[in-house]
Amino acid sequence: MQIKYQSVVGLSVHFLFYEIKKDKGFGKMVKNQCDARPVKAYIMSDLLKKFDNDTRNDVVQIAVAIAGFYLGVFCLEYVDTEYSLWLTWFLMPVIVTFLLPAVIIVLIYISAIIFHLYRLYRMNVVDGVQPDWKHAARLAVCALWDAHGWLWHGYDIKGLENIPDGPFLVIYYHGALPIDMYYFIARMLLFKRRHIHTVADRFMFKIPGWATLLEGLCVIPGTVQTCASVLRNGNPLAISPGGVYEAQFGDHYYRLNWRNRIGFAKVAQEAKVPIIPMFTQNVREAFRTVGWLRGVWLKIYATFRMPLAPVYGGFPVKLITHLGKPIPYDPELTPEQLQRKVAHAIEELVDEHQRIPGSILQALLERVHEIPKRRKDSPLTNGKCQNGTLKTEDSEKSASGKSKVS
Prior knowledge:
Blueprint: H1 8-22, H2 24-28, H3 36-53, H4 59-78, H5 83-99, H6 101-120, H7 122-125, H8 133-153, E1 156-158, E2 169-172, H9 179-192, E3 197-199, H10 211-216, E4 219-220, H11 224-232, E5 237-239, H12 243-249, H13 263-271, E6 275-281, H14 283-286, E7 287-289, H15 294-304, E8 311-313, E9 320-323, H16 335-353, H17 360-365, E10 392-393, E11 402-403
Parallel strand pairs: 1-9, 2-5, 2-6, 3-4, 3-5
Antiparallel strand pairs: 6-9, 7-8, 10-11
Keywords: Membrane, Transmembrane, Transmembrane helix
GO molecular function: acyltransferase activity
Organism: Spodoptera frugiperda
């Protein structure tokens, strides 16, 4: 047997477990600590024989090997022989929670592959059956995402009666991963034959392999002019004012992180379309971002505009998308006033349907039993908005008497 000198730990494992495999009786010698002494003698004797037969070993190699031997003996005497296996099982839940988000990435790339295949073989596969290969690919991709949402999250939509027949603008709360929007787009296309165009951050268009997918799903970077043009052409559009910032730095208190963005209000005013407020219950319980090193991730995002905050989760919690009543076009409202009105509508949806703070365990239980929500104050319970401004009184809302700027 040729001895490899890669690490002290590797040597100790090599000398101990090689002998266990070679001699089945060796494993029986270490049932208790009283048998450790003959085991040490056995290993040392065999170790010396190996070095005696191998003239290539120098002093450094011998010293490292002996150090590895004593480390192995220490583990044999004072550490459970199944420690590594136990440690693996102990850390498995943590490992899984950071690996499950990769499933979403895999599904996204599968969706991209579907679009590439339809584009590559559109002459042979699509022509004569469906003249628009992008639409055919969209149906296949949406079937994939709708199946995933139904199986993994029991996804459902409430408030579909609020969807108008013409173009409209959906404004939604952005979770750590916008999986609710994926499911919503899929469900609307498959069962309502309404394709929702969406606005995404520019960094997504730089991800390898995603360009064809984003083009096929009608995802755009989104300026006021392009968004208004989409709506004027009769297409529904979805925008999250919080965007990637809200995804990274939001939490299970479901506060809006819009940072005074009013671009979506200008789009709605220019296109003269109604706004549908949207919120998905438990979206922050499905995926979350880690809270530690928040300042570091914030500086990285502010400098490079890249979302690098680690995401964990993928829990099979119940997801229900709630669509609020349409906010009609009102030429008398300024973009700032319309922004406050929409923010208030979304916060009302959160207050009505979401437990604050969110609980992963309760969200899991809601898969089998609907837990009634206890009435609480609005998510903005500290009297201030996320951007630090005080909540203002809104005379137009006589029912609630308050309006919150997010």
